[in-house]
Design a protein that fits this description.
- The complex is a heterodimer of chains A (314) and B (304).
- Helix content of chain A is 43%, strand content 4%.
- Chain A is mostly helical.
- In chain A, helix 7 crosses helix 8, helix 9 packs across helix 11 and helix 10 crosses helix 11.
- With 304 residues, chain B is mainly alpha-helical.
- Chain B folds into two domains: 128 residues, Cytochrome Bc1 Complex, Chain D, domain 2; 118 residues, Cytochrome Bc1 Complex, Chain D, domain 2 (Orthogonal Bundle), CATH 1.10.760.10.
- Chain B is built from twelve helices and four strands.
- The longest helix of chain B is centred in the first third of the chain and has 27 residues.
- Classes of the chains: A mainly alpha (314), B mainly alpha (304).
Chain lengths: 314, 304
């Protein structure tokens, strides 16, 4: 045999062998890859989940998220230019978010304004300031007369904060008014804005306080405490979660003491971060449970009740 | 007989239709009527009328109409506020120390653009004021009006007068965006080509202002009832030295846009400066902020 011929033969055989072996190896490696695909291990990726402290619910409910374009968006705090007006806005915001420090002398309980007016008074359906300010002065059934925004604030201090109302020309009322006016920049005067006040509640049956106890234990007690006294900060003074009853809560003259108002607030905002998850009847029932608790008396009937039936200490 | 009648009828029909056609023709070719040629010479106005910028309806904010005030307690407060605003001498007499009404400066019940309309002011408050070096609410601003422009005593913040005026301003500015400057806010913006002189101002005052405000500047009273038909510009019954209208600039800006009444924007900027300098020099109640000092050394001009 000629060596040249042999060379040709080996070339052909080698090429065929290479093709067959190559495809086999490739197929083999493919199979290997599919088998040993690295699965995402959440514990490896997020170190915080190695020791999970919270049990995450498996069945998530669908929550209607507040759409950005649907409601009015108040101006940002960063956009404020330096001026005395801006200083007053910042003071108003401080009083609003940290009433316990900036308006302590006028406050009789442990709440802040933001305990009800969530997200610094910006959140729709949590009584946002930007929806309230353009409507005042307006007639109020509670006081049976036309009240200005400042007088409405005084009512907040008197009932919801269970304190003494600052005078109309006080720095606190003025700063809060400036803050509200700044938040509602651009809203036409006297228009009802979507997101005003709280959610609407449709009652289908009379609420019972017995259901409310269970609902409270399931949904509310982890933050507000089983005794409804709220949860205090451990490293500083004040409440991390506001008390719903007891001497540090709103008094019996407050709007939140009404079952309907409380329920419409709960429906739209509670449990925190999971709004609109309770049904209307559940919200009403849990509010009946809150309604029957002990709390400070209505200051309009103050002296008599405070002397003869003082509030029980929490 | 019947033939004759029918013939006559036909004839009449034809002739009438012809007449009708003729009448139509005359209607089409009507004679042109020249209004100027037939106007008596006495009624022909001067030809060099200055260009007056008329206020266009769509250009400025239009507040709601008085007929639309709701029938509720809020509406009652609005009505009371309007009464106080347009007839301060009757509805807030105890707080007013002179003969003025709110509408003397805020013309047309606080509606007229460039006459410090309420609908442009209300959404801007609370705002910082240089005068008080503080952020003031609308109520406090109204108090200042009583103190200086009305030369009186300010009602308290919770008084029905202040509340009613605030409700009225709130209702007037219904629909105006909060915290946004609207066109027509305050008064006119002026240029100042040279320093104003009161000598010119006196001439301009006597030509343009004296017929209503009187040569002595004490205004013109009603003959059949109390109060002023045309407000006094100086003297006992006018605003005091602390008022915004007492600053020459404030006065000139107001005059330019609104005076002579019904002929706003007819004075030049310089004429407005001049006439306000003349008004500024006249005597009037002293500034209440310098009260005891002025009362001692330059006592007020005496009672009415």
């Amino acid at each position: 045999m000629n060596l040249k011929r042999m060379h040709k033969y080996f070339l052909v055989v080698g090429a065929a062998f290479a093709i067959v072996f190559g495809t086999w190896v490739a197929a083999d490696s493919n199979v290997e890859d599919e088998d040993d695909l690295p699965t995402l291990d959440s514990v490896n990726i997020r170190a915080s989940m190695q020791q999970p402290k919270l049990t995450i619910p498996n069945e998530l409910t669908v929550v209607p998220v507040v759409k950005p374009g649907e409601y009015f968006v108040p101006p940002k705090l960063e956009d404020l230019t330096e001026s005395k007006y801006a200083d007053e806005v910042r003071l108003g915001r401080n009083i609003f978010t940290n009433t316990q420090q900036y308006a302590k002398r006028y406050v009789g309980n442990g709440l802040n304004c933001t305990s009800c007016h969530l997200q610094e008074g910006r959140k729709p359906h949590a009584a946002p300031l930007w929806a309230a300010y353009p409507m005042y002065p307006m007639y109020r059934d509670k006081s049976r007369q036309v009240v200005s925004f400042q007088e409405r604030l005084q009512s907040c201090f008197r009932f919801s904060m269970n304190g003494m109302a600052p005078t109309l020309d006080s720095r606190e009322i003025e700063a809060l008014t400036v803050y509200a006016q700044w938040l509602s920049t651009g809203i036409p005067v006297g228009t009802l804005m979507p997101g005003r006040g709280f959610a609407r509640i449709d009652k289908t049956e009379d609420p019972s306080p017995f259901n409310g106890v269970d609902i409270y234990k399931n949904y509310c007690a982890s933050c507000h405490g089983a005794d409804l006294q709220g949860k205090k900060f451990t490293n500083r003074e004040g409440y991390m979660f506001p008390p719903l009853a007891g001497p540090d809560s709103y008094n019996k003259g407050a709007g939140m003491h009404k079952v309907k108002t409380c329920a419409s607030f709960v429906k739209a905002n509670m449990p925190l971060g999971k709004p609109y998850t309770l049904t209307d009847d559940e919200a009403l029932e849990v509010c009946v449970h809150i309604f029957v608790q002990d709390r400070p008396w209505d200051p309009r009937k103050g002296m008599f009740m405070s002397i003869f039936m003082p509030v029980t200490e929490g | 007989m019947m033939r004759m009648l029918s013939f006559l009828l036909l004839l009449g029909l034809i002739t009438s239709s012809c007449f009708a056609a003729e009448l139509k023709q005359t209607e089409v070719h009507r004679v042109e009527y020249d209004a100027l040629a037939n106007t008596p010479t006495a009624l022909i106005r001067e030809k060099a009328i200055r260009q007056i910028p008329a206020i266009n309806p769509g250009e400025y904010f239009v507040p709601p109409e008085v007929g639309d005030i709701p029938t509720s307690k809020y509406g009652d407060m609005v009505k009371l506020g309007r009464n106080i605003f347009s007839d301060t001498q009757h509805y807030a007499k105890r707080y007013a120390g002179n003969g003025l009404n709110c509408t003397n400066c805020h013309l047309q019940e606080g509606r007229k653009p460039y006459a410090a309309p309420l609908w442009a002011a209300y959404p801007m408050y609370p705002a910082f004021r240089n005068k008080t070096r503080d952020v003031v609410t609308f109520e406090e601003r109204v108090q200042d009006c009583f103190k200086y422009s009305m030369n009186g005593i300010a009602p308290t913040l919770d008084s029905p007068e202040i509340k009613a005026l605030t409700a009225y301003a709130h209702w007037l500015s219904k629909g105006a965006p909060i915290n946004k400057e609207l066109p027509g806010r305050g008064f006119a913006r002026l240029s100042k080509p040279r320093d104003p002189t009161s000598v010119n101002g006196e001439k301009i005052y006597k030509e343009n202002c004296a017929s209503c405000h009187a040569v002595d500047g004490h205004g013109k009273k009603f003959t059949n009832r109390d109060g002023y038909m045309f407000p006094p510009l100086w003297g006992n019954d006018s605003f005091n030295h602390g008022a915004g209208m007492y600053t020459v600039k404030g006065c000139a800006q107001f005059t330019k846009a609104n005076m002579p009444l019904g002929k706003g924007w007819t004075l030049t900027d310089m004429e407005a400066w001049d006439v306000c300098t003349y008004i500024w020099l006249q005597e009037r109640p002293s500034d209440p902020r310098f009260g005891w000092y002025m009362n001692t050394f330059a006592p007020p001009l005496g009672g009415n």
